[in-house]
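Now for our target.
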Amino acid sequence: MTPGDPRTARTKARLRESLLAECADRPLGEVSVSAVVRRAAVGRATFYLHYEDLPALAVDACADVVHAAVDALHAWQTEPGAQAPARPPAALAGFLTGAAGHAALYRTLLLPGGGGPLGERLHRELRARARAERTAAGAPHADLVATAVAATFTGILADWLHGSVPGSPAELAEHLWPLLLALHRAGSRPVR
């Protein structure tokens, strides 16, 4: 099977769904490859054809959360040059609500402070999106601001999921949004 093969996509989707179902009952550390392949109705060799180990499958299964986070932070950009709203987009609180529902799994992959395989992927994709948007808009310090925004969001999300940052999803969105806007605005001033 090749990466573009529809059978590969279906098999990987079944493995992802199986892992998420297994993690609904217990933490990732207690889930076995045997349980995942049994639930997905695929062979163990098929699992290892696509994934090195369970954490690799878990990061792939959680890729949707990365895309959802990036989209939630940019939901207000309905047209080029649009100004960021003073209040957080509803999609941000919606994303945080969904993340809270899978917190046990995400905490395994997104370590306090924003490290871990899911944290690295989230940081990388947020940084790329923010950098591309700043570059397209001609905003200064694209690399600096993109890194600051990605690190801030990823770190706060991780610490919130680990219980170090209190608040409901709506409360966190209300506190996080002004921080992100401040980073964008600070990066738009000339450095002296």
